[in-house]
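Submission sheet (multi-component)
Chains listed below:
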Amino acid sequence: MPAETSPNRLLKVREALASRDVSIDALLLTDLDNIGYLTGFTGSTAQVVVTPSEALFITDSRYTVQAARECTGFTQVETPRGSGGYGEALQNVLKERPIVQKLGFEAGNVTVAAWEKLRELSPKLEWIGTENLVENLRMVKDAGEIATIRHAIAVAEAAFLSVKHLLVPGTREQDFARELEYAMRRGGAEGTAFESIVASGSQGARPHHHAGPRPFVTGDFVTIDWGACVDGYNSDITRTIGIGAVTSRQREVYAVVLEAQRLAIAAIRPGATGKEIDAIARDYITAQGFGNAFGHGLGHSLGRDVHDGPGLSVRSDSLILSPGMVLTVEPGIYLEDWGGVRIEEDILVTEGGCEVLTSLPNGLEVLL
Ligand code: GLY
Ligand code: MN
Ligand code: MN
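Outcome: structure written.
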């Protein structure tokens, strides 16, 4: 899997445009992850217009110098100074290109209010909503992207190991989260992939618990879900650790989650659907009597976005796994007033199956 360049990605977008059933003359991109993927832009505000023969990069004065450096191969357009902003810039671009009569836009990324404004600006244009056009291309990662995700995982794992000694009675969830996040920044992350989850004791029953003031106590399971963002790509890892001592019930629940994950990972291969892999973990958890306690999908695509597209879930019958996809595998069991267990790995689909990219041990650990 070679690393790709912007021209290659642009070519693929144009191919995707050309192969649509409903034709469009140009595509307006407003999703920043898609824009960054296509152009290399790392700023926070821009729009891109792709036609069969042109690629235009629209940004404002804060980013013109940066964009000229980062987005080679794109014709730069600076938004007019004054009140018109991006709408006026787009209007001008389209006025100069009367050939564009049908403009595709990213339906999932434009609010109704923004769309109505755009339609007012260019009333003669036919606006055609597109879905997942660039997102689908992003599902399969190239060598450069995979290397960057590996780096994001390494930073997150090293950070975790450096603060693991704080998993002791008395440490508060929010303090552990803060130290973990600081360690990731110190280790080279440009930010966290998402707000770190640290859920101790009965709070572990909430899959996306906000780390709070509760101190860990002996006998807790603590579920930690964290990730680093490095060069625009994310890692996403979960470990559930015992504090001091655990009961046989905790051991039982942990073993079910771990086995569900092992079975699912063993089945991942090109050609399998996301739904089939989800079912392997779900059926096992159900057979062990915990079916109602596993409410979320088994995993998601991972990349520029933490939830980078479809993944492993009951809804993913149209996702056919192929080499280069990076996915999380994160079964969980959540029992109200008791707590929870989630274990999350990041995997790369390969020609022969998959490679587990995360490397922290995932057997039950009880820290004394
Ligand atoms: N941390 C969110 C997730 O695991 O999907
Ligand atoms: Mn996670
Ligand atoms: Mn995840």
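Remark: The chain has a mean pLDDT of 95.
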